[in-house]
Amino acid sequence: MPGANAAGERGKLMRGEQQPLAKLSPFAREVWREWQRLVLPASVGRLIVAASGGADSCALLLAVDELLKARRLAAGVCVVVAHLDHGLRGAAGAADARWVAELARRLGYECASGRASVAGRARRERDNLEQAARGERYEFLGRVARARGAGVVLTGHTLDDQAETVVLALLRGSGAAGLGGMSPVRTLDERGDVQLARPLLGWARRAGTAAYCREQGIEPRVDAMNEDESFKRVRVRRQLLPLLETLNPRAVEALARAAGLLRDDSAALDEETAKLLAEAARDPKLKLEKAAHASDVVAAGDGNKVAPLSVEVLRGANVAVRRRALRQWIKAGRGHLRRVELVHVLAIEKLLEGERGGRVAELPGACEIVRRRGRLWLRVKEP
Amino acid sequence: MPGANAAGERGKLMRGEQQPLAKLSPFAREVWREWQRLVLPASVGRLIVAASGGADSCALLLAVDELLKARRLAAGVCVVVAHLDHGLRGAAGAADARWVAELARRLGYECASGRASVAGRARRERDNLEQAARGERYEFLGRVARARGAGVVLTGHTLDDQAETVVLALLRGSGAAGLGGMSPVRTLDERGDVQLARPLLGWARRAGTAAYCREQGIEPRVDAMNEDESFKRVRVRRQLLPLLETLNPRAVEALARAAGLLRDDSAALDEETAKLLAEAARDPKLKLEKAAHASDVVAAGDGNKVAPLSVEVLRGANVAVRRRALRQWIKAGRGHLRRVELVHVLAIEKLLEGERGGRVAELPGACEIVRRRGRLWLRVKEP
Fold first, then answer.
1. Helix B319-334 to helix B251-281 angle, to the nearest 10 degrees?
2. Are the beta carbons of A381 and A299 closer than 8 angstroms?
3. Long-range contacts made by residues A166-169, C-beta under 8 angstroms, separation at least 24?
4. What does the pLDDT read at residue B1?
5. What is the pLDDT of residues B34-51, one digit of tens each?
6. What span, in angstroms and rounded, lies between the C-alpha atoms of B168 and A244?
């Protein structure tokens, strides 16, 4: 790589003890650049590296290992490899788990393994397998992180994963929240004490992670489910993205760029949404009546404690901001947004029309929105 | 269609003189529903119907004709058919023009025809053929509308066109402005006195327009350029959308729904953008210095008269809103946004960093942004 040595020399002069950058592979160098851009911890702290055994997460782990051994990451950074067997592939899943544990051992890191019953969760939560697997995985990573006192979980999602996510969101007809794809850094869950970071998301191509693993003498595992075209994501990966690339060789990068712009838009709209929710709940007439009708909003325990919203304030709001506000309000009241579609939000907006109260919009999962006395009330019915 | 007669009877009772809805074909009935939803003029006024001779615009014209003959549209509504020969297809283009004129004559409407040199415009404006054709077409429609005193121009864009537009925007890596696709109603151009309306955009599939034309005994023209796979749009139509439909049979509808959500988001962000621009230009310290340095902003005539923007106000703004504001400001100062990419906006944002003024960001087309005395100034250089 031209200029790498010169940069390495400068690096040595400027950073004293650190090894020159030239000692890193080009892949690890890119990871390090992104690491700094995302302001991930480099001097102290515990990191969880999620590893499936596939090329992407292996490449991430190997690059983190390079960064530690080349002292880009200081010795105070402690890595734990985390692997979840989703319990979907029997012996093959168990073999992957052993393989990841062995790789971690050879590299000198602790490996935390877990086993889940994704199929059971899918039935229980009425999710598809992919959603259920994701839910189990992130819960597992949260448990591992908290048990080890780690503040950051790293996953190996790549630019290709981002492009697939965008296409899948488009196929569902999602708005900016879905089309914005994954964030390079976000909180892992609502507890907010663990960050989820994806240092490959902004730049790494899947072909690059596989090539880098081979360069490092590692042959990653192949997950047969990644080849199974009954999964939409696999067909997007194998059929749709290659076709998009015939139309624009940099289509994957273009999709990721679009997603980034939409994430920025979403963040701006979230600010407006927070203002609107505060204003709609702050309706001055509300306080007087609130105590008297508290039973209206606390019928089913904690999940149900959201303030009613002023019809007038909602009516005067911009439609995109109002829809976001309604979704956030439902999420706060109901605990989640599963199966809430645009049609439900439109039905709630219908309640805002005209002067007549007493009307009801039903939501999936025994939840309803009632318009009464100039406000919308969210009620979760007793199971 | 079940229930159509009952609806027709109700229609007769409610609307007095009007014919029952049952007299309309299902296609025209959908057009009429959308007509009412978009609040297009139904009792009086001149309408321009843009007609290429292809199935979509023919279907629109035939449906409008049905609406007039069934008196959904009152006799006070006067239709003018407008056809532009783009000058790209020689004798075939001239034949299309004659065919459209003959169809208009048979239906009993005036036909306004024009001929453009799209290739010349493309060279002049350094646009591609599709952009140049669109520019010529909308200018022509504006001239026809104004010459006839028409307030509305109708085009036959369908749900398929919308889906293609969204995919093409995604391939360019566009944000919400591009991914939002076409609006069902907007002003035709910046003069704001003519509306452009697309009564097929929200629901009609291309297969449906062709079938409807045939039902009405019309065999629409086929534009060979619509089959030419050297155009990206044609490949999106013929290769990509069919593949998306194997993943979701209602993919075209999903793409259009996503676009609608993003248009709503854009409208919300546009409100915030307008507030930010007003605030950034209203900087209190600015008025004092403005007169003294007027030469800074009026170097190249009318195109250059935009107020400088406060660095401090821009710095404090949300990033998505700020980027929109900068783009709008450039458009106001420079007259257009051609060839202005995200990288240029990022370069302008760089100027906002730190305390140092005197720095410059270059834009394509002899335009530059200078940071000086706590403001950004837009300068269009003399040609």
1. 80
2. yes
3. A166/A255, A166/A256, A166/A258, A166/A259, A166/B170, A167/A236, A167/A240, A167/A241, A167/A255, A168/A232, A168/A233, A168/A236, A169/B258
4. 38
5. 999 999 999 989 999 999
6. 10
A358 conformational bin, left if phi > 0, alpha if psi -120 to 50, beta if neither: left
User: Within 13 A of A375's CA, how many CA atoms are on the CB side?
Assistant: 24
Residue contact B255–A170, C-beta within 8 A:
yes
Q: 3-class SS at A41?
A: coil
- What's the confidence (pLDDT) of residue A283? 58
Query: How far, in Å, are A78, B143, B252 from residue B147 at the CA level?
Result: 75, 6, 37
Closest CA to A226 of A91, A48, A56: A56
CA distance A271 to chain B (A): 9
pTM of the model: 0.84
Backbone angles phi, psi at A230, to 5 degrees: -75, -15
Q: Which of A159, A250, A266, A269 to substitute to test the interface with B, most B CBs within 10 Å? A: A269
Contact A232 B254 (CB under 8 A): no
Distance CA B55, CA B238 (A): 16
Residue A358 tokens, joined:
């007493």
Site of tokens 């072909």: A207
Question: What number is the ipTM of this complex?
Answer: 0.83
- Chain centroid to CA B128: 17
Residue B221's SS3 state is: coil
| Cβ contact B176–A176 (<8 Å) | yes
Gap between the Cα atoms of B252 and B241, Å rounded: 7
B268 → closest Cβ in A173, A261, A320: A320
Chain A hits for B248, CB-CB cut-off 8 Å, are: 171-172
Distance CA A112, CA A103 (A): 12
Under 8 Å between Cβ of A334 and A303: yes
- The single-letter code of the amino acid at A272 is E
Which residues in chain A land under pLDDT 50? Answer: 1-16, 19, 286-304
Residues of chain B with pLDDT below 70 are 1-22, 283-305, 382-383
To the nearest whole angstrom, how far is the Cα of A322 from the nearest Cα of chain B? 10
Among residues B264, B232, B225, B256, the alpha carbon closest in space to that of B119 is found at B225
Q: Write down how long chain A is.
A: 383
Residue A193 CA: distances (Å) to CA of A143, A189, A199, B104? 12, 8, 19, 69
**Which tokens sit at B308?**
């400088």
Q: How confident is the model over A147-168, as pLDDT tens digits? A: 999 999 999 999 999 999 999 9
Nearest to B202 by CA among B266, B268, B252, B134: B252
A50, A310, A339, B170, B290 from A377: Cα distances, Å: 41, 9, 20, 39, 52
From residue A33, alpha-carbon distances to A38, A72, B30 in Å are 9, 11, 55
Q: What is the pLDDT of residue B219?
A: 96
Query: CA–CA separation, B83 vs B94, rounded Å?
Result: 11
Q: Which amino acid is located at A264 in the chain?
A: D
Contact assignment for B174 to A268 by CB distance below 8 Å: no
- Other beta carbons less than 10 A from residue B205's beta carbon: 15
